[in-house]
From TrEMBL:
One of its GO terms (molecular function) is phosphatase activity. The chain crosses the membrane at residues 437-460. It comes from the Eukaryota. It comes from Calycina marina. This is Histidine acid phosphatase-like protein. PANTHER family: ACID PHOSPHATASE-RELATED, PHOSPHOGLYCERATE MUTASE-LIKE PROTEIN. Residues 412-428 have a biased composition (Low complexity). Residues 1-18 form the signal peptide. Belongs to the histidine acid phosphatase family. Residues 412-431 are annotated as: Disordered.
Length: 485
């Protein structure tokens, strides 16, 4: 019965969207399977490569291919047009390689027929690697003075590292009644799993205080270490409990409804999403695809800000390897070379999958406590702007920072009495975050302001990465669990 109902609902949904045109998408994607953080530098595994590659293939089958189920208007189906893509990732082996692997699935080699050219002298030259397509992955530049952006080598990927107020907020979780209760009540549980990780972590380190680090080591080992799988300690129940506690710990650090500054990673991501979608809308789909590979902390923080935990408890957990969330711009209006929909004719849908899209296709969920999964573009912009932080001035003010990059920002902000004037100056300054989302912050009319794409300065994945000692075997004490990148 349930299967028949699901099939009926699926058919009705397909019918309802039959006349929709996809104008563009923004995809925020997590990396694939990797080695454990306990042994830096982390590396993308072959399994992880496969996960992101097949995810790219799925997105190709939906949006890019000539026979795509929901083709993006005017997208090049076979040979990539770099002008149609904006792809970014942090300076990090795992994230950069995941992005590259995803793109290979999105635009695969074109073969000898398309991947060849005839020279003036009549010689035919075939592209190497069967027409392998070279697609650059741009670097997400940090607005912090720190040059350390090796995010996947850090135990905690909170994008608020370097944001003073966010650090204070996240640290307050570590003294909260909720945290202390769980820390004490799980002490015996972590003592029971300590022998499994005692070659890497001390018993003092193996507590709820370091829930994600402990989970990460065991999780990775359970995939790649056959010896560990023979451990009588690591039952399915134990593995599930380790994940549950890691999720609780990380969400507590990433979001708090009464202290939204804690979710600075989600706020900066929201600004980037708005910026790229705004470029698509105002540029009439000239750049219809935005892709960024980033950290799980940005997923968690955004989930909280967008009120997604109210939809499902699944949105309070760490997104799995190769997970993705997609923001899809659609319209029911007629679109042609001479006709493009107005802002009030455009809708936005949010889709999410907690693993590679090739395994579990993304599903639409309602944002901001709304009942519908498809929102008017203007409503989407209004709701996102309630928590989006996209300029260096905004970030410095929200974080309470006045040194480093914020020292010059503080001076500059005194001469900019409005957001619009700050946005206008940012287009020629080349300074920090001030170039990210001026075209979408504030009143909707400012959406007509488009910033250049070539030097976008984005924040997801870390404004500064704060390195932290690890509790390896023989360590005298466990490292603290303050906010880390």
């Amino acid at each position: 019965m349930f299967a028949k109902q699901a099939l009926l609902l699926s058919s009705l949904a397909a019918l309802a969207h039959a006349h929709e045109t996809v104008l563009g998408v923004y995809i925020f994607h997590r990396h694939g399977d990797r080695t454990a953080k306990a042994f830096p530098p982390t590396e993308l595994t072959d399994l992880g490569y496969q996960q992101v590659y097949t995810s790219g293939e799925w997105f190709r089958s939906k949006y890019i291919d000539a026979n795509a189920t929901s083709p993006i208007i005017n997208i090049s189906p076979n040979i990539v047009k770099l002008s149609q893509l904006s792809v970014e990732a942090a300076v990090d082996n795992v994230l950069q390689n995941s992005a590259a692997g995803f793109l290979q699935g999105l635009y695969p080699p074109v073969g000898a027929t398309l991947g060849a050219e005839t020279l003036a002298n009549g010689t035919t030259v075939e592209s190497p690697l069967s027409g392998f397509q070279l697609i650059p992955v741009n670097v997400v530049t940090s607005a912090s003075a720190s040059s350390d952006t090796s995010t996947e080598d850090s135990a905690w990927l909170q994008g608020s590292s370097g944001c003073n107020n966010a650090v204070l907020s996240s640290n307050s979780y570590l003294t909260s009644a909720e945290y202390l209760k769980t820390l004490n009540s799980t002490a015996s549980f972590y003592n029971s799993v300590a022998p499994v990780v005692n070659n890497t972590f001390t018993s003092a380190y193996t507590t709820f205080k370091n829930a994600y680090s402990v989970y990460d080591l065991i999780h990775v080992s359970s995939i790649h270490n056959t010896t560990l799988q023979d451990s009588a300690v690591l039952t399915n129940e134990t593995l599930s409990q380790l994940l549950t506690l890691a999720n609780q710990h990380e969400f507590g650090l990433a979001y708090n409804s009464s202290e939204t500054i804690r979710a600075i990673a989600g706020s900066t991501l929201a600004a980037q999403i708005l910026q790229q979608l705004n470029v698509t809308v105002t540029g009439e789909s000239a750049v219809p695809v935005g892709i960024q590979f980033g950290a799980y902390s940005s997923f968690l923080s955004f989930f909280g800000l967008a009120q997604l935990p109210e939809v499902s408890d699944d949105f309070t957990g760490v997104a799995g390897y190769a997970s993705s969330m997609t923001f899809e711009l659609t319209t029911n209006a007629t679109v042609s070379n001479t006709s493009y929909p107005t802002a009030d004719q455009i809708n936005v849908s949010f889709l999410f999958t907690n693993s590679s899209a090739a395994i579990n296709p993304p599903v639409a969920y309602p944002l901001f406590g709304q009942s519908e999964t498809s929102l008017p573009w203007t409503t989407f912009v209004t709701e996102m702007n309630k928590f989006a932080i996209g300029t260096q001035t905004q970030w410095c003010n929200a974080c309470g920072n006045s040194t480093g990059v914020c020292a010059t920002t503080a001076d500059a902000s005194s001469s900019n009495s409005s957001l619009s004037s700050a946005s206008a100056s940012s287009s020629s300054s080349g300074g920090g975050m001030s170039r990210t989302v001026a075209g979408v912050i504030g009143a909707f009319v400012t959406l007509v302001v488009i910033l250049g794409l070539e030097a976008l300065v984005l924040l997801v994945g870390g404004l500064r990465i704060a390195k932290k000692n690890r509790g390896g075997a023989g360590a005298n004490s466990a490292p603290t669990s303050d906010v880390k990148a």
